[in-house]
Protein: Uracil phosphoribosyltransferase
Organism: Gemmiger gallinarum
Amino acid sequence: MSVVEIVDHPLIQHKISLMRNRHTGTREFRDLVSEVAMLLCYEATRDLPTEEVEVETPICLARTKVLAGRKLALVPILRAGLGMVDGMLNLIPAAKVGHIGLYRNEETLQPVEYYCKLPKDIAEREVIVLDPMLATGGSASDAITQIKKHGARHIKFIGLIAAPEGLKTLHANHPDVDIYVGALDEKLNDNGYIVPGLGDAGDRIFGTK
Ligand code: URA
């Protein structure tokens, strides 16, 4: 049974509210994306396996736990997913980072992968796909389909804000993928923006508006 979790921790709610504000500038917005990604990473890695080791503390010998060495890979969906990478790496610095970029062919409506570079051993890694806005769920679904074609078997998705449509579509297309988001918003508008949302995440991260 996969996980679909709205991680509505007070710190996440607070930081997402600051991000929603249209007057929040690029630098602050970028920092907030990183911070929320880090908080979501904490929750999404709760099931990582641990093993016991012996540690000599200043007081005595102790048996304590460390990560059991499950290999991780982050795959931001270009371009907005890039804004989440540094925050994630703060907590899991040894993770490898792949990248994927797709667009839809307007005639065939099929996804076209214009860039994809993944770690060679992607099949052995726990893969975390990153995209701040889960709007229609189309690009997240397409990206995960492509990443599976490259061999990945264990995949999670982390987003900052989801629309109900996006959550439903991604879960229906990839029922094996655990989904973690910081907020579930009301709906999509006619232009495909999440309402109330925060506008175009990529433009706000990179200051391109
Ligand atoms: N992508 C964004 O950046 N914002 C939205 O609201 C929807 C998709």
